[in-house]
Specification:
It comes from Candidatus Brocadia carolinensis. InterPro entries: Gln_deamidase_2. This is Protein glutaminase domain-containing protein. With about 325 residues, this protein is α+β, with helices and mostly antiparallel strands. It has two domains: about 5-90, Beta Barrel (OB fold (Dihydrolipoamide Acetyltransferase, E2P)), CATH 2.40.50; about 100-310, C8orf32 fold (Roll), CATH 3.10.620.30. It has eight helices and 16 strands. It has helices at about 40, 45-55, 80-90, 110, 135-145, 170-185, 260-265, 300-310, and strands at about 5-10, 10-20, 20-25, 35, 60-65, 70-75, 100, 190-195, 200-205, 215, 220-230, 240-245, 255, 280-285, 285-290, 295. It has a six-stranded mixed sheet. A hairpin with a 7-residue loop joins strand 9 and strand 10. The radius of gyration is 20 Å and the shape is globular. The two termini are about 15 Å apart.
Length: about 325
């Protein structure tokens, strides 16, 4: 039977109050938005410890119910476990900015043009971009075929739980980045989306996995810069463009434009407050968000593999 509970040392990004769910807790190391279990609500120490962890920016050990999306209890983390955590997840050096965005005001015809419109400094760190869409689709298909819901052992273990999109995007993205670098050697950045203003929420319909609605406070996936050549009429020379495309088999069946990836997370049929507040393009080494616009890393893929294995048998809907 799939594991429906987990315990981990986490850092609190925010605590929000809503009429529907009471307290919502956002953890940097989890994209899912968690609420308090009935037991945790009755235990005043649970919420108090979470508020203290937020105020003092200190980690807290949390027991989570994955099936219900609830916090069951909190504890002080052991010193030795904290030491290991800090050693395994050094902060990202020189992170890129997180910038606000209003998707209804962008022009998809220009927004996705890497180097022309998207002038992120991180693009200067690597120049080996994907030569064409066919290669990008090859990369996508290879990653998608590593999904844990498919029969047989994966070509690259451990399998990637694309069938479980309620959480774990950080691990899926990091494993895909690892594979793309090793097999193809192309530049791989990470794109993060956030819903952090008021009670904004990222909301998607998991059409690939049963059609239920899924909500997050952030999401991350590998971003590839893909070169395309447009043929013009009248014998004019072709135009070469570089597009920002996202590899996210948990949501899509092919590489998609960055604007399409962001827009899919504003499904107001799933949540009235569905809204992408901001986004950021970070180096591929970025793993999860951290305090004050910083990011953590997972250079040895310790948390990546642990999460992939832990979520391997879970399902979304």
């Amino acid at each position: 039977m799939a594991t429906q509970r987990e315990s981990d040392i986490l850092t609190v990004a925010a605590i929000r109050s809503t009429k529907e769910a009471g307290s919502e807790v956002l953890f940097h190391e989890r994209q899912r938005i968690y609420t308090l279990s009935t037991r945790a609500v009755k235990d005043e120490q649970t919420l108090s410890r979470l508020h203290e962890a937020l105020k003092k920016r200190k980690p807290v050990k949390v027991s989570l119910n994955l099936q219900r999306g609830e916090i069951e209890r909190t504890d002080e983390p052991p010193a030795k476990e904290l030491e290991v955590l800090m050693r395994e997840h050094p902060p990202l050096e020189k992170p890129q900015k997180i910038v606000p965005i209003e998707l209804d005001k962008i022009d998809p015809m220009t927004f996705n043009l890497a180097g022309l419109y998207l002038k992120w400094p991180v693009f200067k760190l690597c120049e080996k971009i994907v030569p064409n869409y066919a290669k990008a689709k090859e990369i996508f298909d290879f990653c998608a075929n590593l999904s844990c819901h498919l029969a047989g052992p994966p070509a690259v273990p451990p399998c990637i739980p694309f069938q479980y999109v309620r959480d774990g995007c950080y691990a899926r993205a990091h494993q895909m980045r690892r594979i793309i670098l090793k097999r193809w050697g192309y530049c791989v950045e990470k794109v993060f989306s956030f819903a952090t203003a008021n009670n904004d929420t990222l909301a998607v319909r998991a059409d690939k996995w049963g059609g239920c609605c899924v909500t997050w406070w952030y999401h991350v996936a590998p971003l590839l810069r893909v070169r395309l050549q447009l043929k013009l009429p009248g014998g004019l020379p072709p135009v070469k463009l570089t597009l920002a495309m996202v590899i996210d088999p948990g949501m899509f069946d092919k590489p998609v434009l960055l604007s399409s990836w962001l827009a899919a997370q504003e499904n107001k049929n799933c949540h009235a407050n569905a809204h992408v507040t901001s986004y950021s393009i970070q180096p591929g080494t970025a793993y999860a968000p951290s305090y004050g616009g910083s990011f953590s890393t997972d250079p040895n893929y310790v948390s990546t593999e642990a999460t992939l294995i832990n979520y391997a048998n879970l399902t979304t809907c």
